[in-house]
Please model this.
Amino acid sequence: MALSGPSYSVDLLTKTKGEMEGFLADESKLARTRELLEKKKEVLNEEQKKVLNLFERVFGCYIMESETAREFRALATRIEGKLEGDRNTLKLGAHLPNDKDDGTHFVEMSSVGLSGRMRVDPDERVRKACHESLDTIGDFVLGNGFPELIKTRNKFAKELGYEDYYDYKVTQAEGFGKKELFKILDGLETETRPLLESARANFAEAKGGQSALEPWNISYLMAGDVTTKLDPYFPFEKAVEQWGRSFSKMNISYRGATMDLDLLDRPNKYSNGFCHWPQPAWVKPDGEFQPALTHFTSLADPAAIGSGLIGLTTLMHEAGHAAHFANILQPSPLFSQERAPTSIPYAELQSMFLDSLVGDAAWRARYAKNRDGQPIPWDILQQDLEEKHPYQVFALRSMIAVPYFEKALYELPDDEVTVDRVNALARQVELDIQGGPSPRPLLSVPHILSDESSCYYHGYVLAEMAVQQTREFFLNKYGSLTDNPNIGPELAEKMWKPGNSEAFLDLVEQLTGKPLTSDDWVTTLCQPIDELLIEEKEAYQEACDGLGSGTVDDDVNLDMRIRLVDGDTVLADTDQEGSFLATCKRFEDYVVERFG
Ligand SMILES: [Zn+2]
Model:
């Protein structure tokens, strides 16, 4: 985290993490829970039973009641540790063409750097070289223990009675198995296959022929210049204020929580945005409510083009997680902790629903303004929709390719888990699901390596499905999402309050009134662009007409203390500044002064 002071060291982190895992994997706690459930059956009230049942589920996720399974698990952890260590030392980079002669020179870049360069560099030779480098990650992991890891994970899962490691992972996190998961995913796959085929054909036609579909050309040709045109309307220094205004108009309350936001990038900062809870929210036995304490970070670089929109979307996303976890009202903190058995799509649904608003014309009309306070013109929004909407299916197919690949990988018989076979399998799945080689080669996806994130990607797919169903539900019920005061209280009551005491699929059905299906997502993707433009233009116009009706001076009340920090430095604090807007102003001044 690049924080100074003796209380922030890798050793201490390892120590506290070990203590927490020790607590969760303590067999005597599981035994005591079962004893109470059994012996006191007659006298326990409903709430006590609910808490004990949850304890049993939580401890069950961390305790392994088989010696052999524990041995395989330990072996897998060792192989994984070595593989991740080796992967971190892998030097990536591309042989880029020289300016002055026909030769090349090597430039070192991370995988994120390579993908970024591939998206924006106008020289096709550069983009191709970047993609070739991404492709080498697969050979590296396959040559450094990945096949052994797959086999060991499978042995471990089978020892515990699961079909394979994928089945084990889904069942632990979601409470349903691999078969049920892929019934849902297969529906989505079948329904969007014809869309993919026509989108690929149209893309090739619109962008200069079959070469447009080369994996190093797709994202470059799709992005166009619209990112640059959008940029002035999403000034990074305004992001905190925009999030606060938008959430408070939706009546989202954080129930007295405290939140530290560490938004700016700095050297050696952990290289991924995240949100965590040193203090989960819960209701104590005497009825007193313990508000949450949340920390979250992102890697914003306000000087880069497009950073304002990315920063804002990240903020809406992570603050959405924070709103969710601040509103869990249950009789133990274990209902509101972020690890298993808390479901991944359950958590991601809340954050992805709230960050989806930033893409809506109504939201943009109201909040996207340049530094002179002028709202974003419609023609930029139109161009954005025209360039991206027809090809959204590419993102969906790239998302589902990961679970299909991992499913097939863990289903290979042991003697087929070889470098050549796994390589061929990855290429086969890219061809089947994405229609050709992927801009992000499957074997380069970082999630597939570590225990925590492998066999987990389906969480994003199910969450997006539920986001589309939730959007459709609220749109049908109220006609609009932006600034709708009903949305906060309704999500808090039906989605957030239960925490992990209820299953993800049940919660979606209870809120939207129907079981989770891919119908609404598919309908959104299939909507003809002309029709979408008419709808969005109307929403844009309506939101513009409503501007000026008191949105600027209204105070913002989220019922939380916010501290904007940069590592150890506190940039602004609601307790010091007195109000949310005064805190935003202080942050804004700091960013403008530092980044210009
Ligand atoms: Zn998230």
The chain is about 60% helix and 10% strand. The chain has a mean pLDDT of 92. The first helix runs from residue 10 to 24. Strands lie at 93-97, 104-108, 257-264, 274-279, 282-283, 289-290, 293-300, 560-566, 569-573.
